[in-house]
Design a protein that fits this description.
heterodimer; A: mainly alpha; B: alpha/beta; globular
Amino acid sequence: MSTTGTRLALALGGRVEPRPRAVREQRGIARRVLPPLIFGLLVLALWQGYVALSGVGEAIVPSPVEVARALVRDRSLLLSSAGTTVAEILLGYALAIVVGVALATAVSSSRLIERAVYPWLVVSQMIPIPALAPVVVLWTGFDIRPKLIVIALVSFFPIAVNTIDGLRATDPELVGLLRTLGAGRREIFRIARLPNALPYVFSGLRVAAAFAVIGAVFAEWAGTSSGGLGYLILSYSDQTLTADVFAVVAVLAVLGVALFAAVGLLERVLVPWWALEEE
Amino acid sequence: MKLSASRLAKGYPGGVEAVADVSIELGEGEFVSIVGPSGCGKSTLLAMLAGLLEPTAGGISVDGREPSGGLLGRIGYMPQRDLLMEWRTTLDNATVGLELAGVGRAAARERARAEVGRFGLAGFEDRRPSALSGGMRQRAALLRTFLAGREVLLLDEPFGALDALTREAMREWLLGVWEADRKTILLVTHDVEEAVFLSDRVYVMSGRPGRMRTEVTVALPRPRALELTATPEFAALKESLLTPLREQARASLGAA
């Protein structure tokens, strides 16, 4: 309500109702969702116009409308493949979290381990994972295991690095204070280091969520035939069904965004003091 | 419990000397202050007394003996910054010392709840530190220090970051708390009025490296109220502390 309106209401002896919470929240969501939505639609419109006006073939650049048609046409296959890929992503991501946090805890627990291990963590990121994926399959077999390993390899790094930073960032004066209260290393870890690291861990988790989706596609490209969206991409692009390839990519993007959002939601629950500060 | 330090020194590699040849005595239930210019090694001295820093020379004794197993966990220590943990509520920040002493969560919270009124935190038990005012944060940090149950408390400029009026109110309040509990307190401050108002004795430190210059006994009657600060006796005691401090300030300006 405007100031004038408020004054008017007061002058007339009426009560000024605060704006209902639900309305405020709706406006908040609108402010967050509308700009990217409008921008996305604008890009799609330009894309559609380009395809229509330039006369480029649908097999080279399919128009958004054509991709939408493919989405509808392939819906049952897309859905079942997405089920396979989602399972891989969730399990691989979980493995990445376990490995990343465990490595970070080990690295931050001793200078010697840090010096010995940290450089190798960085080196592990120089491995071209798509090239390595078939070898992993060779080692572990044609089931879900190589996929989980590839996904974890691609996505553990941001989790590990951010967690290490978070564990290190604990205020040394707070550590000193806890020591005067009789705290040992383990108690300092539980009371100060771990909660202090949580916001950092979640930054890593968000980046890793995007990596995990890409990792799943790499893993499925490694020549196993158990389906999944990555496998579907290969099969469609062999048949130059470009619009269908784009449809798969769109589904992958939705999966990535959904995982990213879920991590954000979990963060609000587990790290409420951080979410409060951001507001 | 009596705490005494004799001929303490702390130097760092490279020849920097923070504290040189400092001796200090704290009697049971005594309120003692140290005043000195900033950078005179007051915080270093407290960290040594708390067991966080190893002195390069001299020794610290508790009840006349060198403590076996060190000082950590035996002396109450409140650093300059409140160091409240944002991931804990006010109450859970206050109970951290009890928690580390092995007291169960429910029992610890109950003991803290019994004190929140006296520490001016009633109604804020379940709020996060960011919701507290500066004075409340300091009182929450003091509550954490008091609840840990040590007989000797080292307070490093607990009111340094507060505005003048809040400081004054906090002094009177701290005096009330001390008179009820009779803990041994060593307070570090750069505020001469604060030192005289609160203490039985005041040490004056000089800077770089920190040394004890003089020691003044404050023979003012207790209990004390803020009106005391307007008396001539109070003014004379303040002056006796300010004179050596001013000399130092001039000397350091001349040397610069």
